[in-house]
Each structure stands twice: as C-alpha cells, then as structure tokens.
Write a sequence for this structure.
C-alpha cells in the first residue's frame, strides 16, 4: 500500500524532473522550395527538414510518429544507441508504420552530441524525410561556446528518389555532366603531351571506367537547414562569441567540403562523440556523418559557410552575420575532381593490359598504406611515412604523373596519388580522419576477438552495388556474438567512396591511436583503400549495416547484422509489452 | 529453503524465457522491397527522326526499346522501322521480343523472336545476341537470326559517342547485316547485305530525356542484295539528312 503510493508519487514526479519526454512527429507530404525549383516531397511536422529534436542525456523519450502518407514509413535515429526494436528499419527492427498509424518509439537516451533522424523506407529520405537531433550532455563538455546552430546539409534533387534510381540503373552516367570532353582532351594534350593523353584515355577506356566518376548524382541544389544558396540561411552572432556549429550531412549521395573563409574551425566532435580539438581551415563531411566545430568571429562582418560537393558539381551556402541581411562573397566552385589510376588500385579483376604504367607502381609501396600498419603510430610519424611512401613511388613511370595531386597532398585515408585527396582552398589545414582522436576512450582497450573482411564491390556500368560481391537480396546476415569485439576490414574495390554505417553499435575507426581511436557511426572508405574499424558487440538484436549513399544501399550494398546471445530475453519481453502498449 | 525456491523459480522462469530468446534472435525476416530484386523499367529511343533523301524521298524512322526486369533478367521489346511518307507504307518494320541476362561484367546475352511486318512479305526469326559496352566505349549489339524459311543472317550494330561538351554530343553509328543464305523474296542476297552509317549531333535539352539532333545517314546495299534492289528499280545507295530526337523515359 505504502510502496504503491510511493511509486505513484514518483511516477507523477518523473515528467516534472525531466527524466521523461514526450515528442510528436507527423510524417507529411510537403512542398520543398530550394530557390532553384519547387518540389513536393516528404517532411516532418509539415516541413522538410523536420524539427530539431532536443533531448537530454539520461532522459527516457517517447516519440509518437503519425504517418499521414499513403505509403509505409519509418524513422531511424541515426547514431543513437538504443534497443533494436526502436531502431526504425522496416524488415529488421520492426514492420514499419502503416498509413494513418501512430507508432510510439520508447527508448532511453544514453549519449550526447549531434545526430539526426530520417526515414528508412524507400527513398523517403532523399525526398526530404530527415531532421536533426541535439542531445545535451549530463556533465560538462570539455569546450565552451556562447551560441549554437545546427547546420544540416542535403543535396536536394529535382527528381524523386524512385526516378533517380531508375535513371541510374538505365544509364549510370545519367546525371554525370562533368565527363571528359574533346576540349579536355586538347587541354590535356597541351599540358601532358599528345602521347601521354592518348595513353591515358586508352587506359581508362580499356577499363570502361570514367575518371569523372566521382559523383553519381549531379544537378542537385545544396541546402543548409532547408535553404538553397540564394535563400541563404543565416545564423546571427555577436562579434567575439564562440559559436558551435553542428554540421550534419543528410545528403542522399553528396560529400561536401566545408569552409568558412576568414574563420578557423576547431573540430570538437565527430559523429556525436568528443574528439581532441583540432583546428582546421576546411573539412570533408561524408554522407551521414556529423562534425561539431567551434568558430569565433571577432569582426562585425558576415562570413560565408561554403560547402562544395566533392566532385565540384554543386554547393550549399549559408551565412554567419551580426545582423540579418548581411552577406559575404561566395567563392567560386573549384575545378571538377578527377579520379586517378591510384583510385582504381583496389579493383578486382581489372583488365591490367589496358593500364600501361600501372605495373610499374610498386606494390610494396602501396603496402605502406595498409592501415593495419598504422596501429600505434603517432600522427607525426604517419605523415613522415606518407612522404617517404610518395618519394618511393616513381611518378614518371606511372605515366600519369601530372594526375598526382599537385604539391604531393596526401592523406593516409586516400589511395596514394588519389585524385580525391582534398586540399584547403586557402592552402591551410584540411581535416583528415588521421587527425581524429577520441577525447576519452569509450571502451577499455582490448584485442579484437576476430576480423571480418567486407569487400565493397560493385559494377558501375550496371549500377549494382554489393558487399563481397553479393547484393543484399541474395545475402545471408552477418552473425556476431554478444560480447565479442569485432575488427571490420573494409576493402574498397570500387572507384566510389562509400560511407559505411553500422546501426546500433559504435564503430571505432582505426586511425592508429589505440584506445583513442575516434568513436563514429559512419566511416568513409575511399576508392582503392583498406580501412579498419572495431566494434564492441554490446547490443543484442538485429541491425542494418550499409553504405549510406541512398542509391548504393538500395542497389544492394546493405547487410543485416544479427547479434546472437546477450541479455536478450529480458529486453525482448520488455519490448513486446512496450509495443503492445505503444502501437494503439 | 527460501533460497531453494528462488533457485527453482529462476530455472522455471529461465526455461519459460528460452523460446522467447531464440525467437528474438530471428525476430523477423526482411520481406520488404529492399530484400527483393529491384525491378526497373525504361523506354529509350536512340533514333526517332525524319529523313530526307538525296532522291527527295521522305521517311519517318525510329529505333527504340522498352524493358522491364531485374539485374538478372530483363524482358525487352525492341522496335525499329522506316515509314515512307509518299507511299504511305512501311519500308521496314521490325519488332523483337527478347529475354536478356548478364553474361559478363559489361555484356548481356539475349534470346527471343523477331517479327518483320513491312510492306511486302513478312518474316519471323529466332534471335540470339549479345549487347553491351566494349573497351574504349563502343556500344555493341550483335545478333544472329534464323528465319522460319531457315535462312540465317547476322547483324552488328556499333555506336560511339564523342562529347564535344557535356551536352553537345556527336554520335557515330554503324549497322551492318550479313546473310549466310539468300532469301530472294525479301531481297536478301548471300554475303554482306547492307550497311547504315549515321552521324548525329545532339543536344541534351531536358536531362537525357529529350535530346534533339541533326545528322546525316548513309544507307547502302551490297552484292546480290544490291542487284535485287536495282532489278526492282530501287536505290542501292541513299544519303539522308535527318532531324530528330533521342528520347528516354
């Protein structure tokens, strides 16, 4: 009697002391105006992007999602650690949310930082179904700021997701308008000589691969917080303030290189987890990644946030200003990126006869790039290693010498001599994965119990994408044992960059920093490279694991992961009762 | 005593939960569209044009296809024809229905039937062929036909696109037919029968859906086929100015 009373009183108190929050989201057909075009799409609470959901670490959230569409929907909480039934992937976590249905997600918030949410059904996410999540930490953060803004990027395309998928399947270069032309042939002839240019074209033509194949999807308008470049989303500040910018890349397909001319950016978080602060002039944000940076504009003037796509086919732009209406110059787009033979280095079964000069690339030199050897090496050492590796490689013998990034820019997370290595527009510091070190280790350091190799595979001409050569439709699940620590080895055998996202458990990217390896949810694997990540298998259930490029995932670069064992019985029972109560 | 009871309770409870546990591990099978083969359809017309010949002949001409299917199997309807405006007759009318499946990274094999129903005698053929992308970006389509009369023939179609800019494209196409036996009734002699060579300059006006072009086409018949057409008072060789559009949906 007495205890019941006490429990009742406690439950009454719970909402008051803020340990439980109820949130409502409706999934709606909306109109999206990018400034360049107007398009119907899908949004939340009547808008795309949806609202910024603000949670508190330690809170138990209850989110009612009402589907006002005439099709099934779902919401996946990208990067959140939660029971798998709450993860929102139809067919893996739950059946999905039917038209007219309200589904209630219930889960505890056990982390803090910047995340996002999006539909995991069909192409609703590229069609506009995404929003931001900001989780306030329980304790103090190791950095200070006076004001914060979410800066959520996307690549809004005039075509619907279904149409884009169909077009890519029909003609993989449908959207590629940066292909090499006759004009480029002649400019290459004058730069590199006739024979070199002909050899180069024959080598690529022999492989039936395009140097210009950096972005599958061009023709988009880059949006920041739903605003196109001309609509110019503006965040206000007072000179001298520290501003925390929470960058989220919610694009379907586009990597962005982000800079704010005139401002240093201090990266303090990656994928929601604190990193040791690193000051940069520019950074590349992969699809589905988040980076939190702190900037401190001291002058009473406007600054442009400029995010150009990795292939340089488009950009997003916003402004930080002391007053509304102020603007700063918008930089020009850089020259289109071109792949090099180095980016093809990982390709399997490639026709080597067409690749004269490639043979002379010493494979032992390439071995130096192997990230497994980076373990325990400090950053300075790594840079040295790169340089020596570069020197050891005979550029002229490659016959593509001029394609090597000018100035020998290199990054251990790109193939040596890759055409994709980013450089800062102002010649300054460009963030590398190698710069990311966890602020605090999340797990005790221990040896991985086993290694799983995942070759990222595909056929560009057919627009099929797969893992280990098998598409999701034909694949068995990846089975993990609760309690093990798995080392995933990604070998990218394609010429595209793939942002690999494991749901439900953290991905510790091996940058060679041991227990200070950064804790992420999405890991970019560049063409022709091998990247390792480790995962503590500490969440039972079943989870999605896929390339976060929407059309790659849909074409088959996707897996189900089953975690066997663990404290599942209790959780399953709990989830069942919650479901019964929540699905009214 | 009480310890014993709780132990029993624990075991019973545990046993009771066991099925739930195994059920949870295989909680649900993915039966969503994502786990199914992706089904794609498309309509493409490489050529859809008006032709004006050096003999003042006017033709409407097309070459296109419609497909539906998955990565592993597609059904494709290919259609090709020439309609003479003055005669109000189909000089050429070919329809093929084929199944198509991948045989290598860049090539598909196809097999099916072809129906020719132009002005004059009709023919039905069985067809096998390959289609795909050859090194150096040549689009190749090669077919072997066997008619209901038992005559065999082969056709090779090659196309190359030169990008003057990313939207202004010069496409060269060569189509050659060889017959392994004579079919006099339809004017086919043994050996090289005919070639059609085209050069078309197109501009992608709306995405790649609508690309108007101008061009020239050269048609020629050879050997016995040439003699047959001359005997009937026809032209063995023609030049055409063409105006049309490449279409895809």
């Amino acid at each position: 009697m007495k205890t019941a009373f006490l429990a009742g009183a406690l439950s009454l108190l719970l909402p008051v002391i803020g340990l439980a929050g109820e949130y409502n989201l409706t999934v709606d057909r909306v109109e999206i105006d990018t400034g360049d075009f107007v398009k119907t799409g899908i949004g939340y609470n009547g808008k795309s992007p949806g609202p910024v959901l603000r949670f508190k670490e330690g809170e138990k959230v209850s989110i009612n999602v009402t589907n006002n569409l005439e099709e099934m929907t779902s919401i996946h909480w990208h990067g959140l650690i939660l029971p798998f039934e709450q993860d929102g992937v139809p067919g893996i976590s739950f059946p999905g949310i039917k038209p007219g249905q309200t589904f209630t997600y219930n889960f505890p918030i056990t982390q803090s930082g910047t995340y996002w949410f999006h539909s995991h059904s069909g192409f609703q996410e590229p069609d506009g179904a995404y929003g931001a999540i900001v989780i306030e930490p329980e304790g103090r953060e190791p950095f200070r700021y006076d004001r914060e803004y979410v800066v959520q990027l996307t690549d809004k395309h005039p075509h619907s997701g279904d149409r884009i998928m169909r077009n890519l399947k029909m003609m993989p270069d449908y959207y590629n308008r940066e292909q090499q032309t006759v004009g480029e042939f002649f400019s290459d002839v004058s730069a590199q000589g006739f024979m070199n240019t002909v050899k180069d074209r024959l080598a690529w033509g022999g492989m039936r691969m395009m140097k210009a194949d950096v972005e599958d999807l061009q023709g988009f308008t880059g949006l920041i917080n739903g605003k196109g470049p001309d609509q110019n989303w503006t965040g206000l500040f007072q000179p001298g303030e520290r501003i925390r910018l929470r960058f989220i890349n919610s694009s379907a397909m586009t990597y962005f290189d982000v800079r704010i001319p005139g401002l240093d950016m201090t990266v303090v978080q990656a994928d929601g987890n604190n990193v040791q602060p690193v000051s940069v002039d520019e950074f590349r944000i992969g699809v589905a990644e988040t980076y939190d940076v702190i900037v401190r504009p001291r002058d009473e003037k406007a600054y442009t946030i400029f995010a150009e796509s990795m292939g340089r086919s488009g950009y997003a732009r916003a402004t930080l200003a002391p007053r509304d209406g102020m603007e700063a110059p918008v930089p020009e787009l850089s020259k289109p990126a071109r792949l090099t033979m180095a980016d093809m280095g990982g390709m399997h079964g490639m026709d080597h006869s067409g690749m004269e000069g490639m043979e002379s690339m010493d494979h032992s030199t390439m071995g130096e790039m192997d990230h497994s050897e980076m373990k325990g090496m400090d950053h300075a050492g790594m840079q040295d290693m790169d340089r020596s590796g570069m020197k050891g490689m005979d550029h002229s013998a490659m016959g593509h010498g001029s394609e090597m990034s000018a100035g020998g820019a290199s990054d251990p997370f790109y193939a040596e001599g890759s055409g994709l290595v980013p450089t800062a527009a102002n010649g300054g510091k460009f963030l590398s994965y190698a710069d990311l070190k966890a602020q605090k280790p999340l797990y005790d350091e221990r040896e991985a119990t086993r290694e799983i190799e995942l070759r990222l595979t595909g056929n560009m001409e057919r627009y099929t994408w797969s893992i280990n050569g098998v598409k999701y439709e034909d694949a068995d699940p990846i089975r993990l044992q609760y309690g093990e620590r798995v080392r995933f080895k990604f070998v990218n055998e394609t010429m595209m960059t793939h942002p690999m996202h494991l749901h439900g458990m953290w991905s510790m990217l091996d940058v060679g920093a041991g227990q200070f390896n950064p804790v992420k949810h999405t890991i970019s694997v560049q063409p022709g490279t091998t990247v390792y990540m480790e995962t503590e298998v500490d969440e039972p259930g079943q989870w999605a694991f896929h390339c976060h490029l929407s059309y790659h995932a849909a074409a088959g670069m996707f897996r189900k992961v089953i975690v066997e064992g663990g404290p599942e019985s209790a959780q399953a029972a709990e989830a069942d009762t919650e479901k019964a109560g929540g699905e009214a | 005593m009480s310890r014993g009871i709780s132990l029993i309770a624990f075991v019973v409870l545990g046993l009771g939960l066991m099925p739930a546990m195994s059920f949870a591990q295989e909680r649900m099978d993915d039966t969503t569209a994502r786990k199914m083969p992706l089904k794609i359809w498309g309509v493409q017309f490489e050529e859809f044009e008006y032709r004006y010949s050096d003999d003042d002949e006017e033709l409407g001409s097309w070459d296109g296809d419609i497909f539906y299917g998955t990565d592993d199997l597609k059904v494709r309807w290919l259609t090709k024809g020439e309609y003479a405006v003055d005669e109000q007759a189909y000089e050429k009318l070919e329809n093929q229905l084929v199944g198509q499946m991948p045989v290598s990274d860049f090539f598909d094999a196809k097999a099916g039937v072809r129906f020719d129903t132009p002005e004059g005698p009709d023919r039905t053929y069985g067809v096998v062929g390959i289609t795909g992308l050859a090194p150096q970006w040549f689009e190749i389509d090669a077919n072997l036909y066997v008619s209901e009369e038992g005559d065999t023939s082969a056709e090779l179609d090659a196309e190359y696109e030169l990008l003057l800019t990313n939207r202004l494209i010069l496409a060269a196409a060569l189509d050659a037919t060889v017959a392994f036996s004579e079919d006099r009734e339809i004017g086919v002699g043994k050996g090289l029968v005919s070639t059609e060579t085209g050069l078309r300059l197109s501009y992608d006006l709306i995405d790649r859906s609508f690309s108007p072009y101008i061009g020239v086409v050269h048609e020629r018949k050879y050997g016995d086929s040439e003699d047959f057409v001359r005997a009937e008072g026809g032209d063995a060789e023609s030049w055409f100015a063409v105006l049309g559009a490449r279409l895809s949906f």
In short: The longest helix of chain A spans residues 2-16. DSSP finds nine helices and 30 strands in chain A.
